[in-house]
């Protein structure tokens, strides 16, 4: 051993802590067991109320219904009736358009460029009670309207095919008789549009002419423009979109009535109405049509008279006569003879002025035309 080394010390004994702890725990558990507070099993502590309450479901039957004593029947007032709801008024529906007959379809088709007549305003098999009575004097047969010219429903019409009628003209103008004058009425139609012209010629000169053109519609002939030329040329324009007639000489315009015609087209329209249903217009019936001239318009009333037999250059005819008598000063008297053999085309036209001058056109020949 080196001289400076210290002598070794014996190890100090450690206190027995672990044994003491175990001893203390055992004593504590013994006390707790004696006091009844030690847990009986390992796990979560049970609720202290678990041993005092138990849960069960109890079904309670409903009490039996007590019988209700029948009450004496009381006179009960009936509840007031509910006000009836107004029912919507059913609007009358327009009748479905009647199917067009093959004859009418052929007449108004695009191939109609010759002499075939056009059926217009023909109703589809009207019931006997729906047939209109024959018009009397003062009632309008044109377009089924009234004396004011208003149309209610289309009436049967048969518009003539394209044709040229040549006339021999006699008459009186002032103190000089009218001689050597010839007239021509040219009527062209293709089923949709028409063009009519009436001229009086002396030698190689036209002394007067009237020209009308327009369309063919449901109510028959519908003029668009009427021209009258003697010394000067004046015209009337049917402004259907505005419902007026306008005159080229600045005369006041007039309202346009349904079924209106001009002084030339009215002759052919009357014939179309007669041809559509001749029995509808016996002697004594009348047509009232707004007739437009070059400067004014008025209601012309044509009275149907008895048939007359005529011997003309074109042949023998039994014609239905229609007369428009003057109603005001300076009115013209117009007489027409319409022949059923020619589809009620005019075979004689006579116009007499208030001063006695007149022109009498009598048929010389008939020529079929193409428009």
The residue-averaged pLDDT reads 76
Rounded Rg: 56 Å
Give the SSE order as H and E letters.
HHEEEEEEEEEEEHEEEEEE
Strand content: 35-45%
- End-to-end Cα distance, whole Å, is 163 Å
Q: Biggest β-sheet: count, sense, barrel?
A: 15 strands, mixed
How many alpha or pi helices?
A: 3
Share of helix, binned:
10-25%
Poorly predicted residue ranges? 34-61, 88-115, 123-151
**Anisotropy-based shape:** rod-shaped
Structural class call reads mainly beta
Sequence of strands across the biggest β-sheet? 10-9-8-7-6-5-4-3-17-16-15-14-13-12-11
Total number of beta strands:
17
What can you see in these coordinates?
With 371 residues, the chain is mainly beta. Helices cover 10% and strands 37% of the residues. The strands form two sheets. The protein has a 15-stranded mixed β-sheet with strand order 10-9-8-7-6-5-4-3-17-16-15-14-13-12-11, covered by helices on one side. It has a two-stranded antiparallel sheet with strand order 1-2. Strand 8 (233-239) and strand 9 (244-247) form a beta hairpin. The radius of gyration is 56 Å and the shape is rod-shaped. The model is unreliable at 34-61, 88-115 and 123-151 (pLDDT under 50).
């Amino acid at each position: 051993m080196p001289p400076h080394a210290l002598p070794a010390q014996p190890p100090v004994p450690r206190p027995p802590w672990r044994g003491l702890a175990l001893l203390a725990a055992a004593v504590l558990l013994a006390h707790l067991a004696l006091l009844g507070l030690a847990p009986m099993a390992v796990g979560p502590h049970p609720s202290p109320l678990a041993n005092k309450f138990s849960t069960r479901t109890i079904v309670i039957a409903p009490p039996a219904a007590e019988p209700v004593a029948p009450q004496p029947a009381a006179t009960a007032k009936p509840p007031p009736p509910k006000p009836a709801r107004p029912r919507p008024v059913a609007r009358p529906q327009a009748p479905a358009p009647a199917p067009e007959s093959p004859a009418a379809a052929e007449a108004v088709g695009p191939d109609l460029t010759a002499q075939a007549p056009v059926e217009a305003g023909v109703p589809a098999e009207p019931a006997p009670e729906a047939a209109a009575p024959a018009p009397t004097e003062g009632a309008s047969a044109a377009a089924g309207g009234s004396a004011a010219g208003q149309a209610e429903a289309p009436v049967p019409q048969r518009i003539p095919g394209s044709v040229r009628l040549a006339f021999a003209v006699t008459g009186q103008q002032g103190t000089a008789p009218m001689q050597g004058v010839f007239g021509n009425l040219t009527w062209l139609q293709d089923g949709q549009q028409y063009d009519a012209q009436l001229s009086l010629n002396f030698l190689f000169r036209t002394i007067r002419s009237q020209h009308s053109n327009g369309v063919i519609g449901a109510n028959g002939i519908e003029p668009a423009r009427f021209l009258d030329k003697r010394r000067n040329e004046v015209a009337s324009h049917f402004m259907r979109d505005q419902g007026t007639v306008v005159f080229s000489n600045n005369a006041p315009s007039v309202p346009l009535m349904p079924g209106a015609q001009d002084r030339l087209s009215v002759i052919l329209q009357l014939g179309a109405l007669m041809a559509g249903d001749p029995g509808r217009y016996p002697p004594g019936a009348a047509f009232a049509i707004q007739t437009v001239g070059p400067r004014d318009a008025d209601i012309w009333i044509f009275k149907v008279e008895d048939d007359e037999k005529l011997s003309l250059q074109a042949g023998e005819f039994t014609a239905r006569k229609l007369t428009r008598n003057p109603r005001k000063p300076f009115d013209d008297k117009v007489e027409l003879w319409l022949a059923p053999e020619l589809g009620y085309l005019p075979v004689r036209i006579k116009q007499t002025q208030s001063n006695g001058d007149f022109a009498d056109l009598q048929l010389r020949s008939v020529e079929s035309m193409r428009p």
